[in-house]
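Researcher: Let's try something more involved. This one mixes different molecule types, so please make sure each is placed in the same coordinate frame as the others.
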Amino acid sequence: MMTYSSTQDLISTLPREEGMHSAYSYQYQGFWYSPLRLQGLIDCQQHFQARTDDIFVVTSPKSGTTWLKSILFALINRETCSPQDPHHPLLKIPPHQLVPFLELLKPSDYDSVSNSSDSSITRIFGSHIPTVSLPESIMEKGKIVYLCRDIKNTFVSLFHFIKKANIRPSPISLDNAFDLFCRGASISGPVWDHILGYWKESLERPNKVMFMRYEEMTDEPHVQLRRLAHFIGKPFSQEEENSGLLDQIIKLCSFDSMSKLEVNNSGKLIGKIRNDSFFRSGVVGDWKNYLTEEMASKLDRITEEKFCGSGLSMT
Ligand code: PPS
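Model: All components are placed in one shared frame. Result:
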């Protein structure tokens, strides 16, 4: 393998495209990244060591990461912090701060991450890293909860995020963003390859990778919450079921509740991105308000082609 004296040297050799949320994005191991994310990813590959029972919330951007981070945090900490507690951390600290993105951390901060009072489940991290680029120790030692979302909604959510977060040097049009997205040059894209990678892992290693969908979380939150609790090794007891705990977690982490909190309407994540950028409408099927029939058919067509033969269906 070729060695480079710095990540910058490596980046200068990579294929480059106009970026969706940065001036340029770079293709590394088949996926596209902003320079910041790419630096973070390479740092993880070189320095991150997962611990037994670490949990990773992995998504393609805009698939419901903020929601799942909140739910997992509430679930894991439920014994020490009731979801009805008026001082619950989720009411005071943004979900992305409670559960940081692995590739946005400095290597010197990896070991100080502690978001659970349960010492048997030490850490929860978020990540957009695709399977091909995951540090080996994550698959070996950790557990991954993967969440995907209808591709048309994912795109529409991403487009609005880029506009709202205002982190691109110049605004991007819907058509331009759509073209980059379809060609796979979106943040951690191609989204289809990202999803497929984890879908296959979830079939091959069901104890390591759990596959979830945003739409199923919306339609049947209790079922999905039970699946999650079981997967992380903390199933609900009958007493917890009877006490209404599931409803309390669902309510605490709901879009309505989270998006109204002062803490999620002020401040910024990693310097530039406003915390309120992570909350928009939270509505399934909202793409109908933004995409033409032609655009929707194009995304459906690519999805069908890419997922053909995988057993995964999303149209
Ligand atoms: S990121 O940047 O990848 O972390 O963004 P992500 O959280 O994956 O996606 C943001 C979309 O998720 C919606 N959202 C929620 N939906 C349901 N419940 C809760 N609590 C919740 N929090 C955020 C958010 O509104 C974005 O979707 P859209 O469709 O744009 O509203």
